[in-house]
Specification:
By secondary structure, this protein is an alpha/beta fold. It has a single domain, classed as 2-Layer Sandwich (Transcription Regulator spoIIAA), CATH 3.30.750.24. It is built from four helices and five strands, in the order E-E-H-E-H-E-H-E-H. It has a five-stranded mixed sheet with strand order 1-2-3-4-5, sandwiched between helices. It is globular.
């Protein structure tokens, strides 16, 4: 497995989850379980930092969609921040950019949450 997941609480119900490596068939279950644990710990809003994701495949994209669904069902939001070129390209090719709230930075995402956007 080539995925490191680093969780850092921002404020209250907001956590930034930084991914380093590959989000693919071999790492999707790890990501799913870790994000579920973050939600169970009381973080309703997850900022998924994708800056250091080198590769994402269709299974990885599916795991992002599933994570978004679970977080929204729990009354929160999943926002993508700092998209790497690989992630941006994959989301565009799969026509998924409109599904996610995408922000240039963690600060932009936190500000959008504060505005209720």
């Amino acid at each position: 497995m080539d995925l490191e997941i680093v969780v850092r609480k921002e404020t209250g119900e907001i956590a930034e989850v930084a991914l380093v490596g590959r989000v693919d068939m071999q790492t999707a279950e790890l990501l799913k379980n870790r994000l579920a644990a973050v939600v169970e710990e009381g973080c309703r809003h997850i900022l998924l930092n994708m800056r250091r994701v080198k590769f994402i495949d269709s299974v990885g994209l599916g795991s992002l969609i599933g994570a978004r669904r679970r977080v929204v069902e729990a009354g929160g939001s999943l926002r993508l921040v700092h998209l790497s070129p690989a992630v941006s390209r994959a989301l565009e090719i799969a026509n998924l950019m409109r599904l996610f709230d995408v922000h240039e930075s963690t600060q932009d995402a936190v500000a959008a949450l504060a505005r209720g956007a």
